Amino acid sequence: MSKWIITPDKYLTEGEVRKIKKVCEEAALIARSRGNQFPVRDQLIIETALGTGLRVSELSYLKIADLHLKKGQNSLTVQNGKGGKIRVVMFSAKLKNLILEYLNYRTTLSEYLFSSERGAQITRSGLQQVFKKWAGKAELSSHYSIHSLRHTYATNLYKASGYNLRMVQQQLGHSSPTTTSVYSAVINSDLEKAVEHLDIGAE
């Protein structure tokens, strides 16, 4: 089986991330003023996907009990990772505050962080629909899917960690560093510097 590769069209640029975040934030603000629930939920879905890199199935199964939000804590436990593996994923204090605000705002009693309009656990296709709705409003390319947010998280974390592949592997829940190495192929600071210094044919 050939190894899949990450190419720049599989993850959002910084500008695209800003666009979808802005659209979701503005819609959530209006929704709060009107007492509406779902744009507020949708904003957190997008922010959590971008801030944790969880797989779509992991977002679907994420329960409130899996969140660690006490003072000094900002992490979650993935109970249903690929291959039945459990892992702890750290996230930013900013995302923690968004989660706390959402938990205070929401009216559903569902044990799942993200529930459907019927109060049941949101499905993978439901999450995909949420992403497509807001990606459309942000005028992003239609080829993106909610899984693109996992790739976006991974590439950004790889840069922010000083190109620490092991750290990215742990956060994403990859069993093998070989899987994670696809990000090093597309984000390589040494290669970027090297090609800038190439001056073939210069006089």
Word description of this protein:
The longest helix is centred in the first third of the chain and has 21 residues, at 14-34. The chain has a domain at 11-146: Intergrase catalytic core (hpI Integrase, Chain A, Orthogonal Bundle), CATH 1.10.443.10. With 203 residues, the protein is mainly α. Helix 7 (165-172) packs across helix 8 (177-186). The relative contact order is 0.16. The chain is 54% helix and 5% strand. The protein is built from 9 helices and 3 strands. The protein has a 3-stranded antiparallel β-sheet. The model has no long low-confidence stretch (mean pLDDT 88).
Question: Topology of this protein?
Answer:
Elements: H1 14-34, H2 38-52, H3 56-61, E1 67-68, E2 75-78, E3 87-90, H4 93-105, H5 124-137, H6 147-160, H7 165-172, H8 177-186, H9 189-197
Antiparallel strand pairs: 1-2, 2-3
Strand order of the largest sheet: 1-2-3
CATH architecture of one domain: Orthogonal Bundle
Could you tell me how far the N terminus lies from the C terminus, measured between alpha carbons in angstroms? 46 Å
Helix content: 40-55%
- The helix/strand class is mainly alpha
Strand content: under 5%
Q: What is the tally of beta strands?
A: 3
Task: Characterize the overall form.
Answer: globular
Q: What's the CATH class label of one domain?
A: Mainly Alpha
